[in-house]
Amino acid sequence: MTAGAFKYAAFDLDGTLLDQDGKIDDDTVAGVRRLRSERITLFVVSGRSPDLVKVLGLAPQVLDLFEPRMVLRNGDIIWNWRTNTVESIRPIPDAVLPTLAHSFPDFVADTEQGLVASSRRAAAGHAVFYGCPRSSITVADGPPTMPAAKVTIYADPTRVSAALRGIDGCTFDAAEEGRRCSVIPTGSCKTVGLAELMARRYGQPTLDDVVAFGDGSNDACLLRCAGAGVAMAVSDPDAARSATIQLAGSLAAYLTEHFPAGLDKARGYVGGGSCCHERMSAAACARSAERPD
Questions:
Q1: Is the torsion defined by CA of 77, 128, 24, 263 positive or negative?
Q2: Of the CATH numbers 3.40.50.1000, 3.90.78.10, 3.40.50.720, 3.50.50.60, which one belongs to the domain with range 3-89+188-289?
Q3: Worst-scoring range by mean pLDDT, 87-101, 130-144, 147-161?
């Protein structure tokens, strides 16, 4: 198989393109540049928000290797880094923010206009935890009125979960360390976000021509649904099971010396993993992601 068998490549950031210090090394850049030289169109598909991508300070010559539109917040946000605009957002239900504001003073919403905090304390804590500048977070007098793709609440998760009971269309997640939890739209999925972008902007009805690279549990679905999936050497077990191959060495070495060795565009369904999508249309991906499993 030649590199030209794939027209598109989708890359996760943390743990894939980026090292543990949040940097992309020169060898990895060289590998990515090799794919570009093969006329492969490159996308960033990440769980980060636009603000948390900006804080990485990626060099313009690195960003220029990728398409302007990034699939962020696990598929819920399409952000154009060239124009610094959110072009689409899949929001949590309207009832979530007013409900939280009634009982919880400290939360931060990820909105189409950036990070908006309900208090200075929430803004300061969020900046420290996520490593973003405090100046990037706006403190609002009341709950944000614009759509939000995620809200992080700094409070007892049990109380937050009880307050949101009965609100459909959102998923609740408690952090392991406690005193912090988040709410996202039900069915958040990188596969759905990328598939919708590919269909709308690139006229691609499936992800068959995409090779995906990732390492986390939130990459597992995309690694399964793309034409081929490549899991990093250190990957979540779910991601490793869902991929076509798992690397033994670095991403840089694979891209520069071996790609697309080991990949098979004609693969069928691969068992295991957190989602049960096969390669499918954007609409079918969206329906599948809404299942509770």
A1: negative
A2: 3.40.50.1000
A3: 130-144
**290 Cβ contact partners less than 8 Å away, ≥ 6 residues apart:** 186, 187
Domain limits, CATH 3.30.1240.10, in the chain: 96-185
The per-residue pLDDT for 248 is 95
The DSSP code sequence of 147-184 is -EEEEEE-S-HHHHHHHHTT--SEEEEE-TTSS-EEEE
How far apart (Å, rounded) are the C-alpha atoms in residues 38 and 188? 32
pTM here? 0.87
Q: How confident is the model at residue 265 (pLDDT cuts 50, 70, 90)?
A: low
User: Distance between CA atoms of 43 and 110, rounded to whole angstroms?
Assistant: 22
Protein fold of 96-185: 3.30.1240
Angle of helix 157-164 relative to helix 96-103, nearest 10 degrees, comes to 130
